[in-house]
Amino acid sequence: MLINCCRLWRADPTLRGVSDTVMIADWFWVPRVPAAVRSQVYGDRTPDPRVELVALTVKYLVEAHATRSMTRERVLAAMSGRITADNAWDLVSMLVHLGLAEAFFDLASTDVDPDGSFRGFLLGLDPGLLDAMRHYAAWNGINPKLFFDGFVVGVAESFATVVVDLGKLVLLIGRLQQEQMATLIVLSVDPRAGLQRIAEQALVVREAFRGIVAALDPTTIDDRVLALWRGWEQEFGRHLANLDPFAAGRMLGRIAGDLFQLLTGLVQLARLLGGVAVRAAVRYAPLLLTAVRGAVAEARLLAALLLAIGEATITALPRVGMATLRTLFPPEVLGPLIRRGRVLLVGDELAITMVTPAAHAEAFAGAGSPFSFMVSQNGKPLLMASVSETVSSAGRKATRRELNAAIDEILTRLDDVFREVKPPKANVSRAAVRAAVLQQLEQRLSTVLNRLLQKVAWEEFRALRKAAKVEAWRLGQQVHRRMAGEITKMLGEAPGLQAHTEKAISTVVDAVRKADPELAATLKGADAVLKQTIAQMLLSHPDRELLLELVGFTGDATKAGAEKALARHLADRFGWKAGTTVGELRSDLLLVDTEATRMTNVDWTSSTKLERFEKTWAKVADDLGEAFDGDWAGLTEAYRKLSKEVPPEVTAGLEELTAHAVRETVVRQAALSQVFPGFFVTSHEMAYQGLHALFKIPL
């Protein structure tokens, strides 16, 4: 309509009164600025026609919906030679009264003015116009798409676990300001007002940001972190000054993401620590802003947190496999958790705390704890997601270097487990219940199942004795056969739990894949491991050094020919053929729960070996008396202190017992943890009375 009118005015000037129009281009006339507006701008001064011409040029182009790039070009041409330092602010005033100031200063933003000529022209007239640019264009005039694109990128670069929008963060700040965090947040805008304008939301975020940073203690927060945060806030302001919407949005996204993570994290920490004041939880803030991949800078602080939670609480938590996290948390959580090696992640209700071997050793002097993540809901620890590692096992305390290296090794292996992550299909409460049932079932392996094992062994012995076929190998076969059936009956308490008796590991893998096709990504590398020989598996295992020590191999694993030498050693000590593969290994019993990604290896063992152990123990007790504290690893030193040598029969007895335990439990656990990455694998050796003891029992 406006364009048609302008065409008519241009074609027939007699249709208009000369005093009521202005020619903004050759023979292109538009209505003048209303007299009331001219009066407000100039008062008693004489109006400047040059200012009016530029203002009308802006008005015409904006109302005609010209592109912003064209508008910038035409307005810049109109200002040249007409707008000076003397009348620049009159132009601003007129544009304000016409409601065009925001659209005018929008032309100075970087996405419209890429070479800076429009912005340079204005600042060349008066540097003070920069304030006007900030005021009118900082939020309402900048390109919203570019700003929010930058905001999303910034949040992704922050420590936030989920996509945060400003409105959500403002509501969080408002709620916390009314509750226990009021002393940590200083605001100049009331966030309860349901703010809609980005400018007002950003002001809330920036004020809260300043308040929380001011509350952090420089003695507990790394100065570099504080300096970085303060630098981000200043950089954000600088991008606004330069009217760069993408850079400003990106920086505000980083601020918002970190602030969201920090505020929700402090609330969860307060709950986790038993309802302490949030200010008391601020000391643990570095854990919310720390990654440990490749280093454990926060081991002592994490250890302090573990101590505050309590060893009994942490030890009692039911455990699931690390791969279970794939079913509980979305990709945006698992990405920072595993690939960035985050120490502590929080959401509105859930918190995930990394329990590293180094921190566990620092807190509880027990360096044998598996690498785990503690999952809490509303401040209550529910379960542990763990991987089966042998770090610092076998009575040897790991060094800090080994523990630090273990973290990097484990996270690298878990990258594959979480490479293909889908939306969660289970909830944490269900997983915790499932884990508790499995934990109770495993505890019964040493009580109910053990008594059942003794009963089965006695009954089968009686049957063989009546048939005059009492031989150790026959008894073992019968016990294994009977236990397979008894186990099936026992598993009614845990629906979905698979029991595999006398099955090769390769067969178990096929069954697991069939039972849960979604575990295909987790078991992607299983086939390659199944084809490895035992020697190859041990040499390629992340815990190679420790495992080789446990199997008694003293050769150099890095030299050529190490594989053949290890294969010969395994054949001599354990009876495995050089070509025996991981897939061919069999377990007496393998309990598998694909939902909890938990696996239990059980070996039924004749207590003939335990009888030999009793003889060995009796010999050591007779020789050393109270000087022996039960530490078999220090047996040689204990004999040396009494100026004695370890008797050959003691050495032979311990060697036989150790060899069997290592073969049936340690090596199998190492193999299973490689085939099933992300599973929590345990291994148990259960003894039934041997023939010697059974013959002493009257029929």
Quick synopsis:
The protein is of the alpha+beta class. 55% of the residues lie in helices and 10% in strands. It has 32 helices and 11 strands.
Record field, number of beta strands: 11
Given helix and strand content, the structural type is alpha+beta
The N- to C-terminal Cα distance equals 112 Å
> Which range does the strand content fall in?
5-15%
Low-confidence stretches: 1-18, 391-396, 688-699
Rounded radius of gyration (Å): 37 Å
Mean pLDDT: 76
Number of domains: 4
Task: Give the biggest beta sheet.
Answer: 5 strands, mixed
- Helices, by number, come to 32
| Sheet with most strands: strand arrangement | 3-7-6-5-4
Question: Could you name the key traits of this structure?
Answer:
five-stranded mixed sheet, 699 residues, disordered N terminus, 10% strand, 55% helix, single chain, disordered C terminus, four-stranded mixed sheet, alpha+beta, 4 domains
